[in-house]
Design goal:
- Helices cover about 65% and strands about 0% of the residues.
- The radius of gyration is 13 Å and the shape is globular.
- The chain is mostly helical and about 70 residues long.
- The chain has helices at about 10-20, 30-40, 45-55, 65-70.
- The longest helix is centred in the N-terminal third of the chain and has 14 residues, at about 10-20.
- α1 (about 10-20) runs antiparallel to α2 (about 30-40), α1 crosses α3 and α2 crosses α3.
Length: about 70
């Protein structure tokens, strides 16, 4: 069984910011995710989920915000 890694909020924030600022430099969003994920030591799928949640939290995508999820807990 694999061990789950936890990343600090600062690492998550930096990775998402890097993707949003630099995705135009890549052929696709996924290739940007793969490149940036390798640099910070996570998987592209992990970074994709962080970006998706950031888009929800800022209103660019529908879904439950982080604060709504915490209240529901």
């Amino acid at each position: 069984m694999s061990k789950q890694k936890r990343y600090s909020p600062e690492v998550k924030e930096r990775a998402v910011r890097m993707l949003l600022e630099h995705e135009h430099e890549y052929d696709s969003r996924w290739s940007a995710m793969e490149s940036i994920a390798n640099k910070i030591g996570c998987t592209a799928e992990t970074l994709r989920s962080w970006v998706k949640q950031e888009e929800i939290d800022t209103g660019r995508r529908d879904g439950l915000t982080t604060s709504d999820r915490e209240r529901l807990k």
